[in-house]
């Protein structure tokens, strides 16, 4: 059973253009595709990021999709046009419909999330945000350049929670604290990375665990917050019946946590 923690983001929501990005100690490695993981279906969308979860559908953060127009995306050198969008009623999520089939997509993860330090799941984060600088073991800052280039980094999923993001929406998600001791290419996430994917290996297959949406810098350790894709599997399946999502795991436990300061990672 999942354990949920509610984090109330009431201290300070910062302006839309502020935030963090995929920040690592090696931006050259971050700009090269991860070994054993096909990142071609994490898509640059509307100045930020999105993830293919079906041949005709992208999943992204709602605050990335709220400027709907004649948006198009490029995948493997081919253009795909947006023909529709559907917003979740309460969470910061949106589904984007394309006019023709993509050559590939990702399955939604349907496993569990161990919470003990030793067994935390290793994750790959992928997005199109700007570059930045690692300040110390637990903190990073961002630059004003580099946006629009696909990059990846590593992190570990530290725990599941319900949280109120910078958009005011309540999300069922998980947190990943920034700690360079956790992985070789430890990464933060932010501006332009909203809507990007967090992936975990399930029996050797990389699956979509979450959609990046918020970061918190109110404490001594920076943290990334992603919306848990499997917790919205029912909504995805109702909209995209052919999407491969697996079983739905629903958490019901609630533990109150500390107040932290959230920013969402907008354009």
Written overview of the protein:
With 267 residues, this protein is mainly beta. The protein has 3 helices and 18 strands. The chain is globular, with a radius of gyration of 17 Å. A hairpin with a 2-residue loop joins strand 14 (197-202) and strand 15.
What is the level-2 CATH architecture name of the largest domain? Beta Barrel
Major beta sheet, specifics? 10 strands, mixed
- Strand proportion, as a percent range, falls in 35-45%
For the record, what is the CATH homologous superfamily label of the largest domain?
Answer: Trypsin-like serine proteases
Total number of β-strand segments? 18
Notable characteristics:
mainly beta, Thrombin, subunit H, 6-stranded antiparallel beta sheet, 3 helices
Write the layout of secondary structure elements.
Elements lengths: L2 E5 L19 H4 L11 E4 L2 E7 L2 E4 L1 H4 L6 E4 L2 E10 L6 E5 L23 E6 L4 E5 L2 E4 L8 E6 L2 E6 L5 E8 L19 E6 L2 E12 L6 E6 L4 H7 L13 E4 L5 E3 L3
Parallel strand pairs: 1-12, 1-17
Antiparallel strand pairs: 2-3, 3-4, 4-7, 5-6, 6-7, 8-11, 8-14, 9-10, 12-13, 13-16, 14-15, 15-16, 15-18
Nutshell version of this structure?
With 267 residues, the chain is mainly beta. It has helices spanning 27-30, 62-65, 233-239; strands spanning 3-7, 42-45, 48-54, 57-60, 72-75, 78-87, 94-98, 122-127, 132-136, 139-142, 151-156, 159-164, 170-177, 197-202, 205-216, 223-228, 253-256, 262-264.
